[in-house]
Design goal:
Helices cover 32% and strands 18% of the residues. The chain is of the alpha+beta class. It has one domain. The strands form three sheets. The protein has a three-stranded antiparallel sheet with strand order 2-6-5. A two-stranded antiparallel ribbon has the order 1-7. Strands 3-4 form a two-stranded antiparallel sheet. The protein is globular. Bound molecules: iron/sulfur cluster (2 copies). The site of one iron/sulfur cluster (SF4) has 9 residues, from loops.
């Protein structure tokens, strides 16, 4: 129990004051291995998924591909990721994709995939913000 409380507090506050920096290397990992959340709870089964879809039907683009043995969380892959790792619906992709990676995701204990070339860093500067926005624009070219 104490372990869970400590983990919850760590997840809640570890990202505070930190920002995402870097650019996307288009490895496609985040589109093929993602967890979905209903509030603070990770989706672990079909019933929870159906409840989420009833309220947020745009998540239908994700299909479950495997279950994490340790956490029981279902991992999803997007139906719109191309073989070249480009998003086939880039201009109309969901906000969670546009926002990715967002420091808020660390509240749930999520981590950047090893293959990801973004980093969570403690500094936020005007230059780092501009760098992130420019890299997002480049990704669409
Ligand atoms: S909609 Fe596009 S960016 Fe979002 S998960 Fe699917 S392929 Fe990736
Ligand atoms: S995991 Fe990171 S580097 Fe790979 S496609 Fe997603 S955002 Fe880009």
């Amino acid at each position: 129990m104490i372990k869970h409380v400590v983990q919850w507090i760590t997840n809640r506050f570890a990202h505070k004051g930190k920002v995402i920096q870097g650019s996307c290397n288009q490895c496609g990992h985040c589109c093929r291995n993602l967890l979905l959340y209903d509030g603070d709870s990770v989706i672990k089964n079909q019933q929870q998924l159906e409840r989420l879809l009833a309220r947020q039907p745009h998540y239908e683009i994700f299909e479950p591909v495997y279950q994490d043995e340790e956490s029981d969380g279902l991992y999803f892959s997007c139906r719109h990721i191309g073989e070249d790792n480009r998003c086939k619906i880039y201009l109309t992709r969901p906000t969670i994709c546009d926002d990715y990676p967002n420091p808020r995701m660390f509240r749930h204990g999520a981590r950047l995939p090893e293959a990801c070339s973004y980093e969570l860093t403690p500094q936020h500067t005007f230059a780092s913000h501009m760098n992130l926005q420019q890299n997002k624009l480049k990704r669409n070219k």
